[in-house]
Each structure stands twice: as C-alpha cells, then as structure tokens.
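lol forgot to send this yesterday, sorry. struct tokens for the thing we talked abt
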C-alpha cells in the first residue's frame, strides 16, 4: 500500500453473517488440507479470484504444504464432503468462507494456533471471524485498520505507455536488496507497528530476496537512490495483487508515481485480467493516485494485528 497511515482501533461494519442461524450442535471441525487436494482447493478459490488472490497465489507458488506459506491451509466440508471454505491460518490468517459454519470453524481452529500476526479479509466476514475468535483466543487485538480494495481490469488500462517523467520501472536484482529492504520495512512498520528488520531480520531479508529472485519486485533507481518501488505480493496468472508501492518523498507531486504505476499496471495486464491493491481508508492521496490510474473501488477490507503475547 502506498504510504499507509497507522490507525487506532476502527469500528467494524456489521458482519455479513450477523443474522445467520446459530451454530449446529456437533458441527464439523476445520481440518488441515493434505497434498493431493490442490486441484479441488484451487477450483473452489477460483470462483472469486480477486478476493482469494493471496490464497490462490500461495497455492500456485508453494503448494498446500510449505514453510513459505508461513501457516497451514485448512478446509471445511459439508455433509457430502464438498468444500464450504478454505483458510490459511498462521502468520497472516486469510480465509474464503461461503457459510457461517465454515467461518466459525476457522475461527476456532485459529484459537489453537500460537503466534498469529494478522487477520485480513473483507470487512463483514472479518468482523464475524473476530467475534468468534476472541471468545477463546489467547491473543488480543493490538491494532485494526480499514482498507479499500481498488481494481484495474485489462479493458480499462492503457498498456505500454511510458511515464512522462523519468525511467520506466524494471525488475529488481539482488544488488537492489539494500535499497528495497529499508523502504519495505518502514512501510510495514507504519502499517502494523512492527519493524520486520528488527523483529525478524534474517527472515525478512530472505523473503525480500526471494521476491526479487522470483521477479516480483519492480523498481526505479537513480544515483543509488530508490525512486519508485512496487511488490507483486500475489500472482495467480489471472489476478495480480500489488503491495508496498512507494514513491520517494522528493518525487511526489511530479507525476512520477502515476507514470510508474500506470506503466507497471499496463505491463502486468498484458498477461493478467486485473491488478488489485489495498489502500488505507485514511490515505486520501493514495486513493486519488489509484483512481487517476484508472483503478475502481471494489469493496472494504479489514486488517487486524494481534498482540505478540
């Protein structure tokens, strides 16, 4: 997200499932998904590819079981064994739940996992997830923020137009790592209150380098200075999710951010159907930037950061 603004606890919108029937007695539990379930899981998540972009990308990149997922994939099935929900529970907890009982089951499964860092999802379901989770959780809410989903579809993008000012973004190389890491860490700290270079320096370096080596980090550098940066945090082949979009302080207001963002989105849309981002609701300049680049509002999301108990 571009220049995220730190927020204190934010009131949530009413849960989408607030009027649902009470839990069934003896309802099934969420169970860890085993290798061999990839095709079924991908098909389920692909029914809503933009909202499930992060889960889909992790499966595509790493499979169901991998340390790179930083968590465990769970599934919830109906009486016939069909998936009603898929969740990743771990450092970042994400879920795609089609029924209230699936959401409840994931919240209860999360209660049994230690060291959760954040919960991210659409505003209503996150509110309902949190209501169930906090009833028996060991971790409390440390911080919450409301974010806005913006999406740019291929038909609405100008592909291949070079920025009016400065160079076009290029894929970062390992030599750019020392420029990228401090900026990425500062943006993470502004959003979450935790600096990953301090809390997990070796792991953070590995993750930044892995994104660079996988062709997921785009930069513009001039004279040893990072002018523009964007991270492809998720890529399903159809949907690309951008994060960590940064424009150097002295370059803002000159059209460089808009030019680089528009060019990069156009390049990504040569092979993808859409590009999406999340922007803090209090970050009006970033929202205006994405709107000028042709992105359209697609919904409200909530992020909850948990205490480090």
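and heres what i got for the seq, position by position
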């Amino acid at each position: 997200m571009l220049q995220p603004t730190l927020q204190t606890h934010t009131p949530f919108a009413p849960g989408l499932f607030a009027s649902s029937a009470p839990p069934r007695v003896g309802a099934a539990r969420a169970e860890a998904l085993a290798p061999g379930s990839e095709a079924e899981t991908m098909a389920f998540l692909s029914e809503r590819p933009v909202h499930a972009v992060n889960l889909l990308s992790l499966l595509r990149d790493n499979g169901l079981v991998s340390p790179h997922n930083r968590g465990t994939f769970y599934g919830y099935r109906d009486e016939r064994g069909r998936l009603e929900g898929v969740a990743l529970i771990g450092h970042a907890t994400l879920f795609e739940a089609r029924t209230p009982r699936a959401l409840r089951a994931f919240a209860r499964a999360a209660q049994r996992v230690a060291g959760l860092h954040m919960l991210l999802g659409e505003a209503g379901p996150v509110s309902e997830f949190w209501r169930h989770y906090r009833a028996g959780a060991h971790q409390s809410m440390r911080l919450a923020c409301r974010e806005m989903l913006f999406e740019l579809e291929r038909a609405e993008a100008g592909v291949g137009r070079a920025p009016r000012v400065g160079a076009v973004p290029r894929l970062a190389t390992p030599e750019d790592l020392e420029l990228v890491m401090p900026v990425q860490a500062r943006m993470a700290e502004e959003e979450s209150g935790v600096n990953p270079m301090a809390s997990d320096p070796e792991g953070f370096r590995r993750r930044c380098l892995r994104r660079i080596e996988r062709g997921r980090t785009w930069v513009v550098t001039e004279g040893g200075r990072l002018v523009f940066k964007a991270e492809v945090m998720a890529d399903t082949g159809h949907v690309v999710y951008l994060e960590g979009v940064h424009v150097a302080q002295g370059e803002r207001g000159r059209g460089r951010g808009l030019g680089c963002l528009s060019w990069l989105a156009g390049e990504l849309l040569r092979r993808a159907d859409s590009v999406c981002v999340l922007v803090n609701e209090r970050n009006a300049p970033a929202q205006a930037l994405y709107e000028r680049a042709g992105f359209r509002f697609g919904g409200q999301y909530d992020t909850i950061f948990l205490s480090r108990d």
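DSSP finds nine helices and twelve strands in the chain. anyway ping me if u want another try
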